Amino acid sequence: MQRLEMTGAHHDEGTRKRYRKIQTAVDRMLAMLDEYLSPERMASIGRERQPNEINPATLLEGAAEQARPRRQQISVQTQGLPQWMRCDPAGMRLCLEMLLDNAIKYTSDNIPIELVGRIATEGGVEFLVRDHGAGIAAEELPRVFDKAFRGSNTAGVAGSGLGLYMARSIVDVHGGTVTAQNVSESGTEFRIWLPVAANAGKNLARADASSDNSLDAS
After folding, report:
1. Three-class SS state of 74
2. Fewer CB atoms inside 10 A, N or C side of the chain?
3. CB–CB of 198/185 below 8 Å?
4. How far apart are the first and last CA of the chain?
5. Cα–Cα distance measured from residue 198 to residue 73, given in angstroms and rounded to the nearest whole number
6. What's the whole-model pTM score?
7. How far apart are alpha carbons 117 and 121 in whole angstroms?
């Protein structure tokens, strides 16, 4: 809408009025998202002990299955994952769905996408979402998780620039990190790291509110 307003000085008043109406609706939607992702709302995920655990391999398979109607070529590889981890299951599903949605939107229909889950070298677990598309401009990589940021490769692709921002917000309150890098072969790799014990018999436990809303191995 900002681009239309900047380039549409010659448009009639009725068209410009519609632009303002759409912009107002977008601003209202952003305000709602800000409320949902408020520090208090997100901190509650980090400090409230969840009654349910989730199998991380099942989490990955579920995310892939949900995305396959849009991209059939989504593979899942798992290695050495713990049997259970404690987290906000709905939040982590949403996070993976957003990363897969991003990979689907910015690659061609015939490009395969890989979803990998394994023990991280530094401890904890890592989930990787890899595509084999054109990659992200190197100078834009540090900004891909910024709210409302859309890169130079987004022309003609619908989006709000909020998906990756929300994914990072969810991972942050789990005491983890999410990063993006271009891989040498081609494409982009998004990496979620979570502090889960390497011992498959251990569970991921939420820390108390007094421990900075992070997740510790129980």
Report:
1. strand
2. C
3. no
4. 48
5. 29
6. 0.68
7. 12
Q: How far is CA 85 from the centre of its chain?
A: 19
Q: Cα–chain-centroid distance for residue 174?
A: 13
**Other residues' Cβ atoms within 10 Å of the Cβ of residue 198:** 14
* pLDDT tens readout for residues 129-164: 999 887 787 888 788 888 866 665 655 555 556 788
- Alpha-carbon distance 203 to 197, whole Å? 7
Contacts of 196 (CB under 8 A, 6+ apart): 56, 82, 85, 124, 125, 202, 204, 215, 217
Rg (CA), the chain: 19
Residue 139 tokens read as 């100078």
CA quadruple 85, 90, 128, 40: dihedral positive or negative? negative
Handedness of CA 21, 27, 30, 35 (dihedral sign): negative
164 exposure class (CB count in 10 Å sphere: 0-12, 13-18, 19+): buried
Q: CA 204 → CA 51, 84, 101, 200, distances in Å?
A: 12, 7, 27, 10
Residue keyed to tokens 């398979």? 61
Q: Which amino acid is at 187?
A: G
Question: Measured between alpha carbons, how far is 169 from 42 in angstroms, rounded to an integer?
Answer: 8
Phi-psi category of 113—alpha, beta or left, where left has phi over 0 and alpha has psi -120 to 50?
beta
Structure confidence at residue 180 as a pLDDT band (50, 70, 90): very high
Length of the chain: 218
